[in-house]
């Protein structure tokens, strides 16, 4: 989910590439960053779903005024720029009661661990893609800018919840910085897919699962790069 801090000049993407006319309710240059933010979530979802479930999952993505209510801008004031990725596969990582740890079934532990890792990356990929669009392409600068603009958002709340869950699923939890770096690399590795989806969102505003996949899949590598592989157990 997103509101954005506008750190660059208005983009030509706020106009339809077909008509060159402004989209009906795009009144400021916040929308391109929102579109890249939601596209980052969506692309990370596809990559993560393939890594965890072996399929493309199910999701839809949209940008629209009031999608999550008015957003408090980092510099003050309110923005109605917002978007959302709706998906059932990467939310609410279950933390088992203490008496269930360690798992009797090692496959269950490894699955929950992979799911928690991908949840962290899925949640962070939106803010990271927004930061990359706004000019921060170095992984650590991307992470800093993402936190500066979205650190108190539900994205970070979800990422931190999944990160906390990891201590139940693995003897040695990956460092937060490691997962942030992997998120930045995922965004950079899949930037053409993110850009393609963002451009389409600025024209159509809402994409269902089939439409979004048709845009993303041609830009995905045939062999997933190392950034989408599981970390050692």
What does this entry look like structurally?
The chain is mainly α. 49% of the residues lie in helices and 6% in strands. It has seven helices and five strands; from the N terminus they run H-E-E-E-E-H-H-H-H-H-E-H. The chain has helices at residues 30-52, 106-133, 139-150, 154-169, 176-189, 191-204, 209-216, and strands spanning 60-63, 71-72, 78-79, 83-86, 206-207. Helix 1 runs antiparallel to helix 2 (106-133), helix 1 (30-52) packs across helix 6 and helix 3 crosses helix 5. The chain is globular.
Physical arrangement of strands within the biggest beta sheet: 4-1-5
Gross morphology = globular
Query: What's the end-to-end separation, in Å?
Result: 30 Å
> Roughly what percent helix?
40-55%
- The secondary-structure element order is HEEEEHHHHHEH
Give the amount of beta strand, in percent.
5-15%
Number of helices: 7
Task: Please give a quick description of this structure.
By secondary structure, the protein is mainly alpha-helical. It contains 7 helices and 5 strands. The strands form 2 sheets. It has a 3-stranded antiparallel β-sheet. The chain has a two-stranded antiparallel ribbon with strand order 2-3.
List keywords for this structure.
three-stranded antiparallel beta sheet, 5 strands, 233 residues, globular, mainly alpha, two-stranded antiparallel ribbon
Topology:
Blueprint lengths: L29 H23 L7 E4 L7 E2 L5 E2 L3 E4 L19 H28 L5 H12 L3 H16 L6 H14 L1 H14 L1 E2 L1 H8 L17
Antiparallel strand pairs: 1-4, 1-5, 2-3
